[in-house]
Amino acid sequence: MNNVGILSALLAAALTLAARAQPVALVAAAGTNSVAATNVAALNGHWHSLKVVPKPGLPEIHFYNKLNPVWWLENSDEPVPPAWYLPADPHRITKWYFRNPFHNFTFYVIGIADKKSVRSGRYPDVIANPNSGWNFAVSRRKIIFLPFTCYQHGKFEFYFGWHPRGNFGIKLNYSSSNLSQKKKPPATGASEHRS
């Protein structure tokens, strides 16, 4: 069986499991030892589902916005660059728009970041498998299944599909440093997308 066949079989299995998985409602205060936070750690590595809700404070997004190609190029979440982004650069606003020009398109037109959904996988709340290797997940919005696959090993990282928050993304990266050994700081708002 070739690689495409293997990936197709894995995706079909993930979709089947996602359809049967019961969502786990988890609300954990970041940086606490609450029961919910402990349960998240206990579930990692086992197939489970999480309810994903849009982050609070999103601007109202209408259907007609999603039909406007000019709106696709904008960034409704952060239309103005934050203070940390190139503070001394006189062209910082222009550079901010070129930094992620299709933000609204990937988050709200082909993405589901503004909708409630259910995400299923072994590590559904993160992009990469924390132990390195493969991570498969599926986001489900009503009858639509949106797949996600990620592979990370050493200096190599690849992903394709819909992220934990619902936005679409593609990445193929070979880093000068070992990605598996980088320790990311604990997310302070990790529970904001769960209900």
Helix percentage:
25-40%
Please give the largest β-sheet: 7 strands, mixed
The span between the termini is 40 Å
Mean pLDDT across all amino acids: 78
Counting H and I runs of at least 4 residues, what is the number of helices? 6
3D architecture notes:
Helices cover 26% and strands 23% of the residues. A hairpin with a 5-residue loop joins strand 6 and strand 7. A 7-stranded mixed beta sheet has the order 1-2-3-4-5-6-7, with helices on one face. With 195 residues, the chain is an alpha+beta fold. The longest helix is centred in the N-terminal third of the chain and has 18 residues, at 3-20. It starts with a helix and ends in a 21-residue tail after the last strand. It is globular and about 45 Å long. It is built from 6 helices and 7 strands; from the N terminus they run αβαβααααβββββ. The protein has helices at residues 3-20, 35-43, 63-66, 69-72, 92-99, 103-109, and strands at residues 23-24, 48-52, 117-121, 133-141, 144-153, 156-162, 168-174.
Sum this structure up briefly:
This protein is of the alpha+beta class and 195 residues long. It has helices spanning 3-20, 35-43, 63-66, 69-72, 92-99, 103-109, and strands spanning 23-24, 48-52, 117-121, 133-141, 144-153, 156-162, 168-174. It is globular, with a radius of gyration of 18 Å.
What are the key terms here?
195 residues; alpha+beta; seven-stranded mixed beta sheet; globular; disordered C terminus
